[in-house]
């Protein structure tokens, strides 16, 4: 077992390292072969506006902490002071894979490699006018990615500039949804209230799924805020660094997964001990493609030629170039 002193110094090093990077948000969202640039956050450029993106604008790249106050904040729904709508809604085929790529606001590369990535969905009447209220328990979990059998976290792939792939359940009813992307950075989670949430919502329209809503009957659903507590074992992990870098039974916060398939199955469905299986580790991520179709049919909001060029670069390159393109 590592000493408390060693943990303390490890945290100091991690904290200093984290301070050298700006935090981040979704850079590119891909569905049905189309890649969409994520909007800038307001603390990157106060003049920036969402363009042809289904990803909701957020106010800041800074994280939401796992304190009692922050977990009860409306920021837990779709990120820090999110926009109530995005310009477009992405088409998604049920049973297909969506992917999302994160960037940091400083050097472009995601700075954290400890912690899970979790994805939820919320059914809407119309995605463009959808914002669940506090206490609205309509969010259901479709994916959770923790660590592989070697103890390597999903966020390590993000640090390697790779996208996170998520399979949309084939039985999800057709219709409009918000997809809630949740990255939980745990590097400071040995202290209560210091897990870091990076939350974002994307508007999607599902096709090719079930025709009714019956497949959602009996599905465990939660509200954001309200789904998590400060002392949840997946958010307060005092023994995080006591495993010598090996896999351990990490307890994902939140409900059980809906519509899991063998490719993304969790080794144990019990909330008390969910660790990703070997099969997931082999399929959970893929490099961002170097060339992807770019959606250009929607009307782009007015912005400078330079800013438009930067957004086009981010889409075409898929952030394979770790140098900042902004």
From TrEMBL:
Residues 23-242 form the Auxiliary Activity family 9 catalytic domain. It catalyses: [(1->4)-beta-D-glucosyl]n+m + reduced acceptor + O2 = 4-dehydro-beta-D-glucosyl-[(1->4)-beta-D-glucosyl]n-1 + [(1->4)-beta-D-glucosyl]m + acceptor + H2O. Residues 1-22 form the signal peptide. InterPro entries: AA9, AA9_LPMO. GO terms for biological process: cellulose catabolic process. It holds the Pfam family AA9. Its main location: secreted. GO terms for cellular component: extracellular region. It is an enzyme of class 1 (oxidoreductase). GO terms for molecular function: metal ion binding; monooxygenase activity. It comes from the Eukaryota. Residues 305-315 have a biased composition (Polar residues). It is found in: Secreted. Belongs to the polysaccharide monooxygenase AA9 family. This is lytic cellulose monooxygenase (C4-dehydrogenating). It comes from Exidia glandulosa HHB12029. The lineage of its organism: Eukaryota, Fungi, Dikarya, Basidiomycota, Agaricomycotina.
